[in-house]
Amino acid sequence: MKAEILAVGTEILLGNIVNTNAQYIAKRLADLGIDVYHQSVIGDNPERLKEAYKLAFNRADLVITTGGLGPTKDDLTKEIAFEYFQMESVLYEDILEKIEEYFNKMNRKMVQSNKKQAYFPKEAHILPNDKGTAPGCIIEKDNKILIVLPGPPKEMKPMFEKSVIPYLSKYQDGILFSKILRVIGIGESAASEQIGDIIDNSYNPTVAPYAKENEVIFRITAKAKTQKEAEDLIVPVENQIREKIGIAVYGEGETSIEEVIGNILVNNKLTIATAESCTGGLLAGKIINYPGISEVFKEGIITYSNEAKMKRLNVKKETLDKYGAVSSQTAAEMAEGIAKTANTDIGISTTGIAGPGGGSSEKPIGLVYVGLYIKGKMKTKELRLVGDRQRVRNSTVIRVLEWLRREILKGVLKE
């Protein structure tokens, strides 16, 4: 089965909102073994929408639309679809009652225009909307399938999972199952080169690299009759990748570096405190994203000025005068200072020049020093980053968390 996704809405076409629906639907169709060959965005224009339906059904067996199911005159997705299939729509009283109930629950009166949302052809399979007023529908005719869904993701996703997935499951010819490995600390080119032979020789399963900000994703996808068979195909390929990439593989699935760090800290009862200058609390914020981190995260402070570094962290005035606030020496004293004052196993610090001003030839914008104090042992790291102020700060945080992960895994946990 070949599928096409049509997103309807001028606001998407103009870039006012991001079309996350297409990404979600494409992924879920892939899970069902249904190939998506085209995605389109159409404005709220009846003539162009008619053309889009005609083009889509000329090259696809299944067309899924999102958006354009509202009560206003320019919401025409289903009306144009009914015209395309030469079907007349009728008022469904039971659907109208549910729409009225929705407004009653919100203590609001339903306006007359909402009545439009209760019209469907008798041939349509109607999809209830538990999160809004616009039902969806499925139409089958002449070996073609149209699935019409609402635009808001909070309405579309539950409808897709509850109604569309069971409906499409009968068309499954095997399944596609993917496993994601997340890599950090090396770029896409370097990571791809390390496993180039695996990528080049992959057929089933296939291996595809994707670059994301500050990390690389390897998606391993297998096609089989059952998920268990697909998982069995993936295992040896995954093992080969892990063997070649090593510690740079930090997680799998939808995890994040802060989740991995939080899990390591909590499971090993390693207490931690942070002292930040250039990152201004971003590091602490990332760490405390992990639920349950309060068991080990003791405190985080922002010592932006030299006075605060001396007063709160016991950084020596001589160190600041001789080496400056942006230096490995200051970073070291900050990390040790926060670990000792907070009485934690780990103290970690950041100090640098995020820009846009303040840099020099000796200490350019993007220069950051990190201090890491773990159970009495001190290490520092120099980072040379590029980008605007926010990118430097965000990149610093990710690099710090990755460095912390590696040091814990190869050091403290092996003692």
TrEMBL record:
InterPro entries in UniProt: CinA, CinA-like_C, CinA_C, CinA_KH, Competence-induced_CinA, MoaB/Mog-like_dom_sf, MoaB/Mog_dom
Protein name (database record): Putative competence-damage inducible protein
Record organism: Clostridium aestuarii
Gene3D superfamilies with a match to the protein in the record: 3.30.70.2860, CinA-like, MoaB/Mog-like domain
Family label: Belongs to the CinA family.
Domain MoaB/Mog: 4-171
NCBIfam families hit by this protein: cinA_nterm, molyb_syn, PncC_domain, PRK00549.1
